[in-house]
Write a structure and sequence with these properties.
Number of domains: 2
Largest sheet: 2 strands, parallel
Low-confidence stretches: 200-207, 373-380
Shape: elongated
Order of helices and strands: EEEHHHEEHEEEEHHHEHHH
Radius of gyration: 25 Å
Number of helices: 10
Helix content: 40-55%
Mean pLDDT: 85
Number of strands: 10
Strand content: 5-15%
């Protein structure tokens, strides 16, 4: 009997290259998001709606790609898994920070990278005229560039959250424990079993004893009954026998979870039913935020920075609200919540405050006179 309305059996890998290196849906979501951003910015530039020259949109996007990925990755390593900063190996990519094939991006810090990219883009590009004179084209304020990025970012956020769902990561809170029916809108994620470890070295146990399980203390893996633990262990041990004598218990579990559809009937009774929080955030950060950003840009395009300010406030509020149904990061657990808010929610609070301050500044700057749709002095 299906215990939840949907059993998550998506494969996060599109094409495996070698080992952990593969083309994944998450990576493709970044590529698609940047392509959409280029298309939107290019069309706006052609129509004279933004100050970036149409023939320089590709250059601007390269700065945006680099800064976004660098900011998101470094932010994740520093604030979520700092051990990666000092993790070096003899195999490529040699440094833990560069091991993006194993995942790990912090969206709040990717946005800091976007701000740095916007500053560089706002400086414009030097070109020589036919007379040999050097001029700067596309120079404008950082606020103007941020407005353009604000209306393109929701496309990437939408795709990224959908990819989170496909990966079975950033899990939502449990609504029904393993073995009990879940509501129609809930989802069962086999990836939650990664928090379990087994003692597969049967020669270390007394003769005739059954393999036992132990759970990581900081994981979000739900508790299983003794019968459920034995069923999981039996399933994993059978996979170990299939993989060969060198396979560990954890290797076999990962092998099963990479093929959930083949083990559907055995896994369903062992899984909890959860909020699909990734889809909540996809709708909030992609659809709701996108609609607000575009309406704001159409109404206040002549007031540089207003759209970006509103974007920060709305994004922060939506993240705070949607993370009420999302579990805190596994490495922090409930202890990572300060006054009931997760680390991501506190970063979002900071975004709301920053957005409000920036909004007041932009409105006052507008009242002081001047339109940011004109090139800055010395540029065109």
């Amino acid at each position: 009997m299906t215990l939840a309305s949907y059993f998550h059996d998506f494969d996060s890998i599109v094409l495996r290259i070698s080992g952990d290196w593969a083309i994944r849906w998450y990576g493709l979501s970044y590529v698609a998001g940047f392509i959409i951003a280029w298309m939107v910015l290019y069309q706006l530039a052609r129509r004279g709606k933004i100050m970036i020259p149409a023939d320089r949109v590709s250059d601007a996007l390269m700065w945006l790609v680099f800064a976004t990925l660098a900011g998101g990755r470094l932010g994740y390593c520093i604030f979520y898994e700092p051990y990666l900063l000092t993790s070096f190996t003899s195999a490529a990519p040699f440094w833990g920070v560069l091991a993006i094939n194993k995942g790990g991006m912090a969206s709040h810090f990717a946005m800091i990278g976007c701000v740095l990219a916007a500053w560089r883009i706002s400086r414009g590009w030097k070109e020589q005229t036919e007379t040999g004179e050097t001029v700067v084209i596309g120079r404008c304020s950082v606020a103007h560039v941020l407005d353009g990025l604000a209306i393109t970012a929701p496309f990437g956020l939408l795709l990224g959250r959908i990819a989170n769902f496909v990966n079975g990561e950033l899990l939502g809170k449990i609504v029904s424990p393993p073995g009990t029916p879940g509501p129609a809108w809930s989802v069962q994620f086999p990836q939650e079993l990664l928090g379990w470890k087994g003692l597969a070295a049967r020669d270390l146990l007394p003769p005739g004893s059954t393999d036992v399980l132990m759970r990581e203390s900081l994981s979000h893996t739900p508790a299983l009954t003794v019968d459920q633990q034995l069923a999981l262990n039996k399933l994993v041990v059978s996979a170990m026998q299939t993989l060969g004598p060198t396979a560990s218990w954890t290797d076999a579990l990962r092998w099963i979870l990479e093929r959930p559809g083949a083990y559907r009937e055995q896994l369903i009774p062992l899984l909890s039913s959860r909020h699909p929080s990734q889809l909540y955030q996809a709708a909030a950060e992609g659809l709701v935020l996108g609609a607000v950003a575009w309406v704001c840009w159409l109404l206040y395009r002549g007031r540089a920075g207003v759209t970006a300010s509103v974007w920060l406030v709305v994004y922060g509020v939506l993240r705070i609200v949607t993370e009420l149904w999302r579990l805190p990061d596994a490495q922090f657990g409930d202890a990572g919540r300060i006054i009931g808010l997760s680390r991501g929610q506190w970063f979002s609070v900071g975004m709301v405050v920053l957005g409000l301050v920036f909004l007041v500044y932009c409105l006052r700057a507008r009242q002081a006179g001047g339109s940011d749709l004109k090139p800055a002095e010395g540029g065109r």
